[in-house]
Amino acid sequence: MNSRITVTIGSLLLAATTLVGCGASGNNSSYTAPTAPSAPVTPTVSVPTPTPSTPTPAPNQVPAAADVIIAINSMDPALAYSPNPATVTVGQTVSWVNRDSVPHTATGNSFNTGTLAPGATSAPITMGTAGSFAYHCQFHPTMTGTLTVVASGGSGGY
After folding, report:
1. With a cut of 70, which residues of the chain have pLDDT below it?
2. Cα Rg, the chain, nearest whole Å
3. 113 CB neighbour count, 10 Å cutoff
4. Distance (Å, rounded) from C-alpha 90 to C-alpha 131?
5. 36-51: per-residue pLDDT in tens?
6. Cβ-contact 75, 102 below 8 angstroms
7. Confidence at residue 114, expressed as pLDDT on a 0 to 100 scale
8. Which strands sit side by side in the sheet containing 68-72, from one edge to the other?
9. Domains recognised in the chain with CATH numbers
10. What are the DSSP E strand ranges found in 32-150?
């Protein structure tokens, strides 16, 4: 135990002697204390602006206005689609707007709006053939509607 204390004290004396020896010359004129920089230096980085190789896509666009808009109001079969029945002329366009709080569709044998989220409007669908077209909601089959497409100007639809 005594030898440990001796070694520790010896190490301390050696360290102290070394420190005193470094500064014991008495001539401090050659020593210059380090100074802190007056302001932080911020490196300047130049980042080139890339030139796009493809055109910037257009923002999401609202579907063009249709000639006739049918509202989807509720899952109640009597109130589901309005107007119901709806009538258009050959060549006119129809859109459906979902005013309910759940997704719906307007799906017939010759057209399908796809899923319409609450508040969404379908893309206009051009009615090219005269006739009476039944449609329904794929999610709620009791929701049904009828779209009547009439020939334009007495041409008989030909």
Report:
1. 1-64, 154-158
2. 42
3. 25
4. 9
5. 555 555 555 555 555 5
6. yes
7. 97
8. 81-82, 68-72, 93-98, 125-126
9. 68-150 (2.60.40.420)
10. 68-72, 81-82, 86-89, 93-98, 107-108, 125-126, 131-136, 144-150
